[in-house]
């Protein structure tokens, strides 16, 4: 076997959302900050992302996390969040998965009842709390970045005409659309319709509406469109379906979405400090719990910090081999 490179990975999922955690085998990534590491990685090492997360080793919806040395003395690990189609400045699902994997593999000491891990991310150091009881990992929680509602916009689409959208930030930018006002049912039978209309809305909002983070202008552009509906089920507040990338949808509610949804509800008076919501993915029923911890201000905008809670599981270990003669070693998507 003509192995050009061998890369060590742990495969996981959080609430059904697959994350491949890359432990080693990639070249050193220079940078004095995580933002600089992101920039360098995208310019020089993007082939690692496509090779490991796209076909034939991955698939369009695969998420990933590259562990790198931290740039902050307060952090245990640095992490570059990415996926088959793009990079993410923050990813809640991969954060949950990292908490599970780092404890289960012994990369951090297992402490009961809570093991704390600090991740150096694009947006700063994130504290992850992993519940451990009798040696077993339970739920995983982390504090969100400050999340805030930005505006309500009306965008125009070819198939649905004018559509009202709440735009909010929760680590990534989201556009929230009431599915029932569009007459779209959030069921698997309607998945193709949700994806088609979602992509229309994603293109439209980024053509017609300019959004950027007031403190970090590089965090600009709506990354995901979320269809939501109030849930009739006891103990569940919202059912959601996210659309992003080139035609992708989340299996989990998405951690950054949950933070952004809480910010929208907070701005509308539906949540207060200490208030909780349960958000369920419409496709597979996986759930996130989000609790408002405190108010803050971001660039003059009212914002909140939330605690997000979910579960994660290790699905296997993976030793990726890149053969020198493989014409598809850099990955592809159909």
Give structural notes.
With 334 residues, the protein is of the alpha+beta class. It has two domains: 151 residues, Diaminopimelate Epimerase, Chain A, domain 1; 163 residues, Roll (Diaminopimelate Epimerase, Chain A, domain 1), CATH 3.10.310.10. The protein is globular and about 55 Å long. The protein has an 18-stranded mixed β-sheet that branches.
Keywords:
334 residues; 18-stranded mixed β-sheet; alpha+beta; single chain; Diaminopimelate Epimerase, Chain A, domain 1
Task: Give a short synopsis of this structure.
It is built from five helices and 18 strands.
| Number of helical segments with 4 or more residues | 5
* CATH level-four homologous superfamily name of the largest domain: Diaminopimelate Epimerase, Chain A, domain 1
Please tell me the CATH architecture of the largest domain by its name. Answer: Roll
Shape verdict: globular
Radius of gyration from CA coordinates:
19 Å
One letter per element, helices H and strands E, the order comes to: EEHHEEEHEEEEEEHEEEHEEEE
**Total domain count:** 2
Derived structural class: alpha+beta
CATH topology of the largest domain: Diaminopimelate Epimerase, Chain A, domain 1
Largest sheet: 18 strands, mixed
Q: For the residues shown, what is the average pLDDT?
A: 94
Helix and strand layout, with pairings?
Elements: E1 3-14, E2 17-24, H1 34-44, H2 46-53, E3 63-68, E4 77-83, E5 87-88, H3 92-104, E6 114-121, E7 124-133, E8 136-143, E9 148-157, E10 161-169, E11 173-178, H4 191-208, E12 224-230, E13 238-244, E14 248-249, H5 255-267, E15 276-281, E16 287-298, E17 301-310, E18 313-323
Parallel strand pairs: 2-3, 4-6, 11-12, 13-15
Antiparallel strand pairs: 1-2, 1-18, 3-4, 4-5, 6-7, 7-8, 8-17, 9-10, 10-11, 12-13, 13-14, 15-16, 16-17
